[in-house]
Design goal:
It is a single chain. The protein contains two helices and eleven strands. With about 200 residues, it is of the alpha+beta class. The protein folds into two domains: about 30 residues; about 160 residues, no CATH class. The strands form two sheets. Strands 1, 2, 3, 5, 6, 8 and 9 form a seven-stranded antiparallel β-sheet that branches. Strands 4-11-10-7 form a four-stranded mixed β-sheet, with no helix packed on it. The longest helix has 27 residues. The radius of gyration is 26 Å and the shape is globular.
Length: about 200
């Protein structure tokens, strides 16, 4: 009888120790957090190569952290036969003051790439209709990551003759996916915005 009592006591002690140790291990290893990038404001700034006023187009998330997505606020209006540098300005304005998200994209440049689509012949450089449909199509990227792959916070454009159409910019988040051949469907889409494009 005493042996059965000792055996039960020993079994209870071992189970208690096992449960206590398991709980300690759970507490010591907190769950890994995946930080969600928040983009509330996106601005496209086209700066003429020969000088003059920059042309801006914007999109904004009207409800911040709510269910709505970024919404385009106006058209892109460019001059015909003109060269521009396009700079992306991306912010999280749920912070005060607004947090410039360009810096985070630059820090994680090996995980991000912008892709573009536009109406045929809207630009003489790059020619074609952009690289959303095919990553190998021409685009004039001015910035690269540590692996010499394109980013797209800064690009170059030359308009053609007067026309109207659309211009799409798409930011892909591509951790462990981005290569020199990865495309606009690889990884996750942070945002995809389509603007009306007027070239006069």
């Amino acid at each position: 009888m005493k042996n059965i009592f000792k055996l039960n006591y020993l079994l209870y002690a071992v189970l208690t120790l096992f449960i206590f140790t398991a709980c300690e291990e759970d507490e010591a290893a907190p769950e890994e957090e995946n930080e969600v990038e928040v983009f509330t404001d996106v601005k496209l700034v086209f700066t003429p190569a020969g000088g003059g006023a920059a042309v801006e187009a914007a999109a904004q998330d009207p409800d911040g952290a709510g269910v709505q997505e970024l919404q385009v606020l106006g058209a892109i209006n460019l001059a015909a036969n003109t060269s521009y540098t396009l700079t992306m300005v991306i912010e999280n304005c749920l912070e005060s003051p607004c947090e410039l998200m360009n810096e985070e994209i630059e820090e994680e440049d090996e995980e991000h790439q912008f892709f573009f689509a536009f109406s045929d012949d809207a630009f003489t450089s790059p020619a074609g209709n952009g690289n959303v449909d095919s990553a190998s199509d021409p685009l004039n990227y001015n910035d690269v990551d540590g692996n010499d792959n394109s980013i797209g916070l800064n690009t170059s454009w030359t308009t053609g003759v007067a026309s109207s159409g659309t211009f799409t910019v798409r930011l892909q988040h591509q951790p462990d996916v981005k290569t020199d051949t990865s495309g606009a469907t690889d990884g996750d889409t942070d945002f995809a915005l389509t603007f009306n494009l007027n070239i006069n």
